[in-house]
Amino acid sequence: MKLHAYWPLAALLTPALALAGMNDDPVLTKLDVKQLEGAYRDGDTRLAWNIEGWLGTDLHKLVLTSEGARLDGRSEEQELRLFYRRAIAPYWDLQLGWHHAPLAERRDDRALLGINGTAPGYLETEFNLLMGPGTDLSAELSVEREIRLTRQWVLSPEVGLTAHNFSDPEEHQGSGLADLDLELRLAWEVRPDLAPYVGVTWERKLGDSADLARASGHDVEETYWRLGVSFWF
Amino acid sequence: MSKDTTLPAPSRRRFVQGLALGGLATGLGLHARPLLAATPAATAHPVLSGTEFNLDIGHQVVNFTGTDTLATTVNGSLPAPILRWREGDRVRLNVRNTLDTDSSIHWHGIILPTDMDGVPGLSFDGIAPGETFTYEFDVQQNGTYWYHSHSGFQEQTGLYGAIIIDPKEPEPFSYDRDYVLMLSDWSDTPPERVYANLKKMSHYYNRRERTLADDLIPEAQQDGWGAALSRRQMWEKMRMSDRDISDVTGYTYTFLMNGQTPASGWTGLFSPGEKVRLRVINAAAMTFFDLRIPGLSMTVVACDGQYVEPVRVGEFRIGVAETIDIIVEPIEHKAYSLFAQAIDRSGYAHGHLTPDPALSATPPAMDPAPELTHMDMGMAMSSGDHGAHGGHAMPTQHGHAGHDMPTADSGMQHGGHLGVRGEHAAMPHQGMAMPMAQSHADHGMTGHSMGQHTMNQGAQDAHASHGMASSNGHGMSHGNTHSASQGRSHGQAHTDAPTYKGHPLSAGMPVHADSEYGPHVDMRAEAPEYRLDDPGVGLRNNGRKVLTYADLRSLHPTPDTREPGREIELHLTGNMSRYMWSLNGIRYADADPIHLNYGERVRITLVNDTMMPHPVHLHGMWSDLETGDATHLPRKHTLVVQPGARLSYLVTADAKGEWAFHCHLLYHMMGMFRKVVVS
Question: Which residues form the signal peptide (chain A) (predicted)?
Fold first, then answer.
């Protein structure tokens, strides 16, 4: 058992039978469907999702996430991340791995380095740097907080920001602050692991990114109404 | 002593078929229950007595909630049969494992050879499927104990039962009836799943987190938004919840009394005027209970199987794995409610003490759910929170208005809020500890229990110790224990070592080891005090006399009167949000054993760096709780360390071998565990 302390990844390879006996730190898996929703805008309803799965122990996890949206059987956005998440402080984890955007022309595979955790005030905070190719760098920050209205009604406001150090007209990505994302979801927590919700989100392109979008005749601002469910096991 | 007892000593296995499966009585009609229907419930529980016992561990379908679930039982019974031994006998217990996984039985609190202790990996290899292991040992003690599986999570699923050992010598009290009240917590969710849920979402079972509608808005309307919000602020900053009382709650648990749900209601009979002995055993996996019997005062006569000077109380908290024997004298011809609330008030176990099976008692309303205070965080009181917590923060209410801690208050204004994160060295208690120790030095360091009162109060009054005995109501039990000379007289038997003169219970600043820093530990107590006289969160100032550890005084003199040769300090540590538990920040899997020299007398000091009470159990040897008394330390096998507090006890390492030492909360145990080697 001491092996775990010195060779953390060995823990990931041991079979997940470890719950028996005196193992305080068994290898567990969690599939966290954070959002699985219909996103409605201008008469169209997209299917959107944000799913995180992990395999690991208290301090070391292998994480796979998928986020995206589809409309009429066609993917509009898609992101896959595969990374190692390691606890570095009581409330903070370090993330290191790979970011994949299959629909991107360039920068479809990038390195990911970030931190994830709970800031004082129960602010669920995630900050990632996406790196490559070359010196291209994107930064993304999201902060979310649950506000428990009653035992079962939970309101979750979330703010997201992205920024780039490069400009890519085709992807409508401009240097500097690029996207602002405000989201609000109201969930009915049926159980701690099951909560249907309604939500509204507002996304806006900023700065150069907004100019690039406008120049090619795209919207710089989009509002979606969302209806979905979150669950985990 | 008369014992027209309801725990007869029938020939072995006579009642084995009398399944006390409480769920069967919930009126769901899933199973017939012939024996209970025909017999007063109290006698229905199987009792095995004699010197040879056959115990079969197996599975049994139970139904406590309306859903059939598989329990782990002994001889098909949940709780397992009551075992009745006699002090001085040699008992043989043939334990057959019919499960398809390893099993074991540990005899909790029983002094026996290490290879009979039943801890897989330490005492033996466990009992493999299909095998029978025979335990055999001399019964060297008497009183109320219990037994349970020490394998996996089998204890959660029902493998626990009571042990009653009849004494050789007459008992120092009399009674007419004798009942076991075994409290436990049952979940239909498999324990592996409960544990995984806690790892994935530590507050999964806490359904009492603060909400806007139920808490903040009403408070704001009452006290203003500024006050309501600032009260939240500290907890929010710390990313902790003052409503985090129990890890696993009534959200999944059904609380049982002798295997009966509150709905089925275990029933014990009495005739008005009789003295009834209740042997309360907390066999829960995770739940502390607060027990009272509205309309009756209870006289505590034994704790963890050992006689104590009788203490009359209106209520007591029983930690997981503790046992408390009480005697009650119901006079009226009416049913009394045996009411055991879970510490977080998420539910209760309930039974009836009634002169007539047709009469049943209605449980009272549960008390308000408790909220943690700064003190429970191991912080000094925060001046900013006086309004919110008022008297709570004071461990005791002696009415010593003059002692309102000028130093403490000023210190707290700086250190109060953030001290727990380690940025501030909250000074006040250190500052207080010093003059305290001095004032006791003047009194020959007698260190009776008042010492700790003095401490907690920050009493500058050097005479306080004498005045306090009566003013806090413990006078009865402590009144004659103050003089150091008494301690000496007992110590004369041991001329080779300095005589124990009591412990001043002074709380110096804790030193937190490097291993306590990192992602696996979320807080460290900055000012952990001895709080033996603190009834604990949710019981302070509730208008009832609540038993505290400061009330416990052994009926017999402390057998080993040597001054301890050394001290081992252990910190109970964890990270609640990651659901990791450890001692000194080191989990069992990574820890070196604790070594005790055979024969030595050692002080073990526990500092609770977490926000919840932990019941700590040392196998194989008694733990003599240091109450400040010099001569009559209560002997215990399980000691509850309150959140943010410290306590110490003395152990005589008189049992060679490898012993377990651990937190008895089932989902903490795997991390908060040490092997103790005596050689």
Answer: 1-20
